[in-house]
Amino acid sequence: MLDRFVSAPIELSDAARAGRYERADLIFAEVDHSLASYEGRVYINAPDATLNTGRDHPAYAGAFHIFGHGGCFGDPGHCDVPAGPRDPFDLRAPHQLTPVTKVVIVTEALKRIVPSATDQSSLRVTVVVAAPGKPGNDYLAFSRLRLLTYR
Q: Are 26 and 104 spatial neighbours (Cβ–Cβ below 8 Å)?
């Protein structure tokens, strides 16, 4: 888990480079929400962004929010998310700690940032955690980051 994340370069499609899209989303897959609550502030092509960078920075693209569970307080095994597919006839709600998907709409930021970027073939995403108190390393964890554009 992290309090700040900087992605490897994300290759842009021809349509994304040319601005030929109606909407652009950054998709964070399997975001862990088992610990503390936080805001994940998203910046494009600002690998040095910190908590002091703020929402008024030109690289700011949006944010996602996690309402965390604050850790596990149940009996042993209570917080273990079951592995594998569920029975198709199991009508119960998913386990309360099943990782979630977060989508940040970055259309306007992408259209603003990419044309003036030095390298228009890729971009880097930085996520900075904003949390109550002094942020530690117990926040940000996800399995995959994708950029999707839609026509």
A: yes
